[in-house]
Amino acid sequence: MKPKDLKQWSNGRLMRLAFYVGQEIDRRWKDHSLKERKKFQDCSDVFSYFHYRLWTKSQEIAYGLYLNQKSELLGERLVTLGTVNANLIHAREVFAPAIELRASAVLIVHNHPSGNAMPSLEDIAVTKRLKKVGKLIGIELLDHVIIGKNQYYSHSLKKVLCV
């Protein structure tokens, strides 16, 4: 198939093709990342890992990244799907995969569909709650990163960083 052949396709057909190509790229990227044991040194690594997947979404989506003692990725799990401006992140959904994977640490990342990465009061409260639970069960919450459009907020640094 040549690029000029795509001009004859309907918009719906092109969108389905783009969706399936995107899914396949994402699957290959995840497989490749897990094989190489992606390492997370700081919040910028979290941002680059998730930015293109999350900043364009129209609803809040939260993921957990589960790390071993060397900060290498053991697994990634969807924690919760929210609404356009809210996300209910519960410690049970965050730490159950951590226990299952025998993780030493957890990173939480979610997006703000508005594009503004500043945390809400609820984001701050959730982070405090997760830190307490993590301390209690011995699995450290390293950071909670909020992704906006070309910016992110790190709860560990307590500031918005632009890229």
Write a brief structural summary.
With 163 residues, this protein is of the alpha+beta class. The chain has helices spanning 11-35, 43-54, 91-100, 121-137, and strands at 61-67, 73-81, 105-111, 140-148, 151-154, 159-162. The chain has four helices and six strands, in the order ααββαβαβββ.
**CATH-assigned homologous superfamily of the largest domain:** Cytidine Deaminase, domain 2
Report the oligomer.
single chain
CATH architecture of the largest domain: 3-Layer(aba) Sandwich
**Low-confidence parts lasting 5 or more residues at pLDDT below 50?**
none
**How widely separated are the two ends?**
37 Å
Please estimate the helix content.
25-40%
Number of helices: 4
The number of distinct β-strands equals: 6
Order of the strands making up the biggest sheet = 2-1-3-4-5-6
Number of structural units classed as domains: 2
The coarse overall form would be globular
Your description of this structure?
The chain has 163 residues and is of the alpha+beta class. The chain folds into 2 domains: 8-37; 38-162, Cytidine Deaminase, domain 2. Helix content is 39%, strand content 25%. Strand 3, helix 4 (121-137) and strand 4 (140-148) form a beta-alpha-beta unit.
